[in-house]
Amino acid sequence: MGDQIQFIVEKLNQEPFRKNYNLISFDSLESLQLLQLLSDVLKEIDPKHAVDIREELPEQTAKRMLNLLGILKYKPPETVSDLSAFRQGLVTGSKAVIHPVLHWLLQRTNELRTRAYLARFLVKVEVPAEFLQDDTVADFNKQYEELMEAFKNLHKEHEQLKISGLSTAEIRRDISAMEEEKDQLVKRVERLKKRVETVQNHQRMLEIARQLRLEKEREESLAQQKQEQKSQLFHAEQRLQRAQVQLKEMQHVVADSKPESLMKKLEEEINFNSYLVTEKIPRELESKKTSVYFLQKVVAEPAMTQADLTALESQVDEVNAQMNQLIEKRMIIYEPADNKFSMYRQQASIISRKKEAKAEELQAAKEEMSSLEKQMEQKSSQAHELEGSEVLTEDEFKQYVNKLRSKNTFYKKKRREIAAVTAEYGILQRTEELLRQRHEAIQQQLQAIEEKKGISGYSYTQEELERVSAVKSEMDEVKGQTLDNMSEMVKKLNAMVAEKKASLAPVIKELRQLRQNCQELTQECDEKKMQYDSCVAGLETNRSALEQEVKGLLEECAQEESNYRYIHCMKRSLEIQLQRAKEEMKAYVSPEPQERRRAVREQYTRIILEQENLGKKLREKQKVVRESHGSNMKQMKMWQDFEQLMECKRDCFLRQQNQAAIGQIIQEGGKDRLVL
């Protein structure tokens, strides 16, 4: 516990809280301060919780914090036995409840901030099923779910981009590096242009080089087209092989079977496929949808404790018991009519279960057969690539060994020839090196003579032109050969296609007959389906009646459950009031004075006495004030008159002083005139 408090204090003293707590000051916080501190920590996770709890009711504070803790999937510690005790401790600000919550929140603040942000958009709003019957509401709900899925995908992409490590600084460095490379390339191109401008006929040489580049690109595109056509030919051969295998299988099936067996086989396939489409797959789809719905509902709910689980289990047991009682009552009421059909219902349920099991076995066998067919096709394609599509017999193996021996002798002979050619190649290479040295010396002499004559670069230009013309002639020959090969290949492909068409003509005729038979079978299947639909409609009416009955029973069960819950709540409130009354009676009857002081009656009695004493004092004071009111009023009137008299004297005195000062000034002015 001490380590937990120390961790909380360290985290609260850091950014962004900066509380400057120590262990003593933190431990001495009151319940209201602890709740405000918890609200501040929740504010860092979700800004909507920036609330002063003094301006909020305790129930609202507890509800707000519990909602957020449920979204964050907080589980109370094992020391808290009941969820109601946890809620009560959260309302009262108990340290045993607040400290573990703070420790859990401060341990994973960043993770919880992300979870709270996502909860704003991913906590699904539950719409009742009766409202979803409206098309507009259903469309809005579907649009809401699609937007939620789009938000999930965008958030995943955002997280992947954050994890990938592509920062703007790296991108800017790459851009600056590419700009530098671009500048270097531009400078190199300018230098090459300046060097080429000094050569004679440089425009013509550039044009020839451009044509050479275009021809090379064309050669590459032709080679790519050739490779694509080879791959298409290979795939066409594979499809042809598969078609031949299927044709052989169909011929074998047709040869070994009769029209009745084919019809029976087709009917079995149609019945199996119709069973899958109408019964098995919709039932599985409905079960998957219900399971997904319940899973989403469980995920959206807050974390549950063991007490909640036990309460739910007890409720489920009670509801099951009530349902069993209702079923027994119904069986007792409808027993004579149901005895006739019970045996047939049991047989039908057994047959349906066997049918489902056999359908699953058949589906698994078909999937296994398809996987084996795919493996067989892969093995055949690999064998075709390795040119060993069949297993060799003994005679063929002997021929293969003799062929290898002859190839071995031929290989040894060619190896001796290669050794002789290699020796001759060394001699020729040395001769070539000597001739190259002589050629370089002669070339230097030729350049010196050209410089003397004033025609420098003539020989080099002529050699380049000859080399380019030779390369062009070689390219023309290669192109001609490539076009010839392509035309021959196209002819072969056309011939092969014509042969395949001719070989497939009888198969197409047989296929037409089979198609006609299929149309007849389809008509018969439609008739059977109409009969089946009529039967299904009758069963559907019976099912709807049973559903209405079950729905009524469920509504009755829900009503009884709501009544039970109401009575249980009333009982709980009455128990609480009774407990309070017992405690009050115990405290009032107790001989100890401290216990009696705690009683509400004693407290109210003490307050009443205090108020009565205070009332007596106030009444005495009021009596004194009433008795002295007249004399006090007269005295106040005399003081007011005295104040007015003094103000009049002050005004007269000020007026007299002003008149004396004016007369003195007039006398001084007359004396000055006499002097002048």
Automatic annotation (TrEMBL):
Entry function: Component of the intraflagellar transport (IFT) complex B: together with IFT74, forms a tubulin-binding module that specifically mediates transport of tubulin within the cilium. Binds tubulin via its CH (calponin-homology)-like region. Required for ciliogenesis. Required for proper regulation of SHH signaling. Plays an important role during spermatogenesis by modulating the assembly and elongation of the sperm flagella.
Protein name: Intraflagellar transport protein 81 homolog
Span of domain IFT81 calponin homology: 3-126
Keyword Glycoprotein: no
CC per GO annotation: ciliary basal body; intraciliary transport particle B
Location in the cell: Cytoplasm, Cytoskeleton, Cilium basal body
Similarity comment text for this entry: Belongs to the IFT81 family.
GO terms assigned for molecular function: tubulin binding
Coiled coil feature spans: 137-253, 309-389, 483-563
Superkingdom, taxonomy of origin: Eukaryota
Keyword Transcription regulation: no
Record GO biological process: cell differentiation; cilium assembly; intraciliary transport; spermatogenesis
Pfam families xref list: IFT81_CH
InterPro entries: IFT81, IFT81_CH, IFT81_N_sf
Keywords: Acetylation, Cell projection, Cilium, Cilium biogenesis/degradation, Coiled coil, Cytoplasm, Cytoskeleton, Differentiation, Phosphoprotein, Spermatogenesis
Chief localization: cytoplasm
